[in-house]
Amino acid sequence: MSRPLPSSDHLVGAVASGDRVALARAITLVESRKPEHRLQAQKILGSLPSPSPPSWRIGVTGVPGVGKSTFIEAFGKNLTADGKSVAVLAVDPSSRRTGGSILGDKTRMPSLANDPAAFVRPSPSAGTLGGVNRMTRETMLLCEAAGFEVVLVETVGVGQSETIVADMVDFFLVLMLPGAGDELQGIKKGIIELADMVAVNKAEGDNAVRADQAAAVYRNALSILSPSDDGWRPPVVLCSGLTGMGLEDIWTTISAHRDQALTSGTFQDKRSRQHVGWMWSMIEEGLMDDLLADPSTRDFISNLERDVAAGTIPAPLAADQAIAQRSFGIDSETAKNSKTKAPKTKRSKTGKP
Ligand code: GDP
Questions:
Q1: With a 6 A CB cut-off, is 65 part of the ligand 1 pocket?
Q2: Residue 62, ligand 1, Cβ within 6 A
Q3: SS3 30
Q4: Is the CB of 246 under 6 A from ligand 1?
Q5: Is residue 183 within 8 Å of 67, Cβ to Cβ?
Q6: Helix%, strand%, coil% for the chain, nearest 5
Q7: pLDDT exceeds cutoff 80 at 213
Q8: How confident is the prediction for the chain on average, in pLDDT?
Q9: pLDDT for res 184
Q10: Interval between CA 116 and ligand 1 midpoint (Å)
Q11: How far is the CA of 99 from the centre of ligand 1 (A)?
Q12: Between 97 and 319, whose confidence is greater?
């Protein structure tokens, strides 16, 4: 039997006082699929204090093996040594498939995970990417309310995860490997466009020349992009998570970006835009969940899928039928003309027709 949950007010108070156990319990609530937990999570999120000054939200991305965990561990330790508290979160779409979290795993960042000024939380592993997005954002709010000044959100270049993380942070750092060879062929143009800074990692020792070559290629790639709204031109720097080279300069640049954004007002504009975008992505997610919650509707749509694939029904008509079926129930004429068998009953979440 699970323990009874403390009241929302109690949890909010405990989280705000920096109680780690309460923080972990609140995160468990936002990651739960149980409706009563969701409800309580929403109550808690609605009552959390906002940190002032605002937290530092920093995204870190790069292909597996680029050195993210080594970098975050060294970077995070520098920050805690400087008196800052640091939370590390992760968005890892692959963990949905493997059932285990790779990113943000405490074993990958042992000294940060054992640092009393740090909090390392693996990627939520359940649900859709949209669900992981929501959980990570909500966890970020909880960590901020618990007093963590810097939130580092780690991700890999899989699917939409980079866009999702870039959309929830103030500063997006892209780590790249040295070398102007094969790795560069694989640069996704999109990721360069999302970057507020590119850091060529592992640039120490024998790698220095190849790192310089890579940096030149990235500078060139960035120079043809127009600057962002706030006039920021993403710099390309060299670093090494292993030796600590360049890490202080990266923090100095992130600070300069923040100062500029706070002074010009683009900091708050960007956060406001992100919050509105977040609302819309939750609306989309909620509507999709609602649509697909009923087994007969799922069957109906998977039949439509098959018919669209076979070319027996045009995609737009199938989409209309799927949406209409959910909103109004399928009309007998459509059902007669459709090759897809409509479900017998129409479901409504509220139980109303
Ligand atoms: P991740 O998969 O991106 O998290 O990468 P890891 O941090 O696990 O590092 C992958 C490999 O690269 C490990 O063998 C690390 O020891 C090595 N590595 C990480 N950072 C550096 C670095 O700055 N320089 C060098 N030479 N190797 C590094």
A1: yes
A2: yes
A3: helix
A4: no
A5: no
A6: 55, 10, 35
A7: yes
A8: 84
A9: 56
A10: 24
A11: 24
A12: 319
